[in-house]
Specification:
Elements (H helix, E strand, L loop, with lengths): L1 E6 L4 H4 L8 E6 L5 H11 L5 E5 L3 H11 L3 E5 L11 H18 L3 H12 L9 H12 L19 E5 L4 H12 L3 E4 L13 H9 L3
Parallel strand pairs: 1-2, 1-3, 3-4, 4-5, 5-6
Helix pairs in contact: 2-3, 4-5, 5-6
Length: 214
């Protein structure tokens, strides 16, 4: 079985375009809930020996559940495992900026919040001409819990075959991938698709090669 974990902001097919296998199951998570609580949802959904895929903040509950899952392998795409790279300048700068953005949103300035968050998380500046179409996404994103402070430790994944995939565009995700690689993960960079390297045409083949031990 392959379990694809993602945010409820997308359906399974758009979240994971390569997940067409007959043994694929999708697990959408409400990332406005505490991420440590969601680890129990992941545990309940994944049978032993599954290949578990997770993107961005969805990797936090997967990492917290890893010891209980006994997965065949993990495929972590731009995992937001900020706890494992605390102290890195890019990580600390990001946490500071998101904290500032949260304060702006709480003061009632959602566009000001988006002006900080959009270039940090999605690439490209916030633009008033796109604001009406982007406002719903900004509202949803502002309700999410930041993916740090949950005690995630890279050692939680030690001994589990892990592929970490990044898009090569963001220093924080590169720092997180560096730590995972030092712990034994295989690292892959698929540029050109920003925060969603799973949209890269070579993603599926790279995963198959990893699972085949190539």
């Amino acid at each position: 079985m392959r379990l694809y974990v993602h945010s409820t902001d997308r359906d399974g097919v758009s979240a994971w375009p390569s997940s067409a296998q007959s043994d694929a199951e999708h697990l959408p998570l409400d990332l406005t809930r505490p991420l440590d609580e969601l680890s129990l949802t992941v545990t309940d959904a994944a049978p032993r020996g599954a290949v578990v895929f997770a993107h961005s903040a969805a990797a936090v509950p997967v990492a917290l559940a890893a010891a209980r899952l006994s997965p065949r392998a993990l495929v972590l795409v731009e995992p937001a495992l900020y706890d494992i790279a605390r102290g890195h300048p890019a990580i600390e700068a990001h946490i500071g900026e998101i904290s500032r953005a949260k304060s702006v949103a709480e003061a009632g300035d959602l566009f000001g919040y988006w002006s900080i968050v959009r270039p940090l998380m999605f690439g490209g500046a916030a633009d008033r001409s796109r604001w009406e179409s982007e406002r719903p996404g900004a509202e949803r994103f502002a309700t999410r819990r930041p993916p740090w402070g949950f005690g995630v430790d890279a050692a939680m994944l030690r001994g589990i075959a892990t592929l970490v995939v990044t898009g090569g565009w963001n220093a924080e995700y590169d720092a997180i991938a560096d730590v995972l690689q030092r712990e034994g993960a295989r690292r892959l960079t698929l540029p050109g698709h920003g925060h969603r390297p799973q949209d890269h045409p070579e993603f599926a083949a790279a995963v198959e090669a990893f699972l085949a031990g190539e």
